[in-house]
Amino acid sequence: MLPPSDYFHRNGFSNAAIIESLSDSERHEVEMRLIKMLEESSEGLIGETMY
């Protein structure tokens, strides 16, 4: 869901279509995993994915 954090992989990247295609239960699971990731990292794309 999150590509490597370099320009080549992140330039123009959007995971909105992936998130929108998830069911409610899948979206909830992803949200829980992202929250756990935020506890260990300040990666900006994690927060953007949750928005």
Structural class: mainly alpha
Per DSSP, what share of the residues sits in E-state strands of 2 or more residues?
under 5%
Contiguous helical run count? 4
**Portion of residues in helices?**
55-70%
What does the overall shape look like?
Answer: flat
Number of separate strands: 0
Our measurement of the CA-to-CA distance between the termini, rounded to an integer number of angstroms, reads 14 Å
Low-confidence stretches: none
Rounded mean pLDDT is: 82
Topology order in helix (H) and strand (E) letters: HHHH
What is the chains' assembly state? single chain
Backbone CA Rg:
11 Å
Largest sheet: none
Give the SSE layout.
Elements: H1 7-10, H2 16-20, H3 24-40, H4 44-50
Q: How would you characterize the overall build of this protein?
A:
This protein is an all-alpha fold and 51 residues long. It has four helices and no strands. The protein has helices at 7-10, 16-20, 24-40, 44-50. Helix 3 packs antiparallel against helix 4 (44-50). The chain is flat. The two termini are 14 Å apart. The model has no long low-confidence stretch (mean pLDDT 82).
Give the gist of this structure.
By secondary structure, the chain is an all-alpha fold. It is 65% helix and 0% strand. It has four helices and no strands.
List keywords for this structure.
single chain, mainly alpha, 4 helices, 65% helix
